[in-house]
Design brief:
The chain is mainly α. Helices cover 49% and strands 11% of the residues. The strands form 2 sheets. The chain has a 3-stranded parallel sheet with strand order 1-2-3. The longest helix has 23 residues.
Length: 238
């Protein structure tokens, strides 16, 4: 069977997500998915149009994002202009990793008919949907603000808030951390994680305060170590 993806005008993956995730789990996470018609009505009521940015902090399967892109097309924005505008201005977050994955697929389906051989200036771009808890506040260590991402028990990843102000660099560092951790986990050898702190420093501004710089360096090393543990235990997955 062949599908014409350019003709999809609704969030078809919403039902897939709801069938994969138990109702009890969705209830505990406070997930109540917005019907397509209500997302469209809301965006029309607020007069959403080209030139306006949009953030959905609990985007689920991406219904509002998908619909916003469709409304921009309806108002005449298309082709590479639509793709570049969407990637810069229409974004979302969600606390559930599977929801984030499905939202990214929906987003790609929305812009796919308008892709014409890459993005602006040929630069690689990310789909602007990330896994995050929009209600979470950062903690502070000395002068450094950190976002804690729970793993298991009391263990957490700690990501400097400053890193989030450089999203492309953060994406590169997280990718490199995954490769670094996979290499160590597969080798089974003891590693000096200080090397990853040095790698991270190459991508972000180094705080002027020596203690702050050391704090960031230590947390990047600890993140790499904990990711290695997750990979070695087969738990680096949804």
């Amino acid at each position: 069977m062949v599908y014409d993806l350019s003709q999809i005008n609704e969030d078809l993956l919403k039902q897939l997500y709801q069938s994969l995730v138990e109702p009890e789990t969705r209830h505990e996470l406070g997930e109540f998915y917005t019907p397509d018609w209500l997302a469209e009505l809301t965006l029309r009521e607020i007069g959403y149009q080209p030139g306006q940015s949009l953030l959905d902090p609990a985007c689920g399967s991406g219904t509002f994002l998908f619909t916003a892109i469709r409304l921009l097309v309806e108002q005449g924005l298309s082709g590479q202009a639509l793709v570049d505008f969407a990637l810069d201005n229409i974004m979302g977050t969600d606390v559930h990793p599977l929801a984030v994955t499905i939202a990214k697929i929906n987003y790609m389906l929305a812009i796919l008919p308008h892709l014409r051989g890459g993005t602006r200036r040929g630069q690689p771009r990310m789909i602007p949907i990330t896994m995050a808890n929009a209600l979470q506040l950062p903690i502070k260590e000395h002068h450094i603000e950190l976002v804690e991402i729970p793993i298991e028990g009391e263990r957490v990843f700690k990501i400097p808030v400053e890193a989030a102000r450089h999203p492309q660099a953060l994406s590169v560092v997280l990718e490199q951390m995954g490769q670094y951790a996979h290499g160590i986990a597969q080798s089974g050898k003891r590693a000096k994680y200080g090397a990853f702190g040095d790698i991270a420093r190459q991508h972000f501004p180094i705080p002027a305060d020596v203690q702050d710089a050391q704090t960031e360096w230590v947390h990047w090393n600890t993140n790499a170590s904990r990711l290695t543990e997750q990979i070695a235990a087969g738990r680096d997955s949804i």
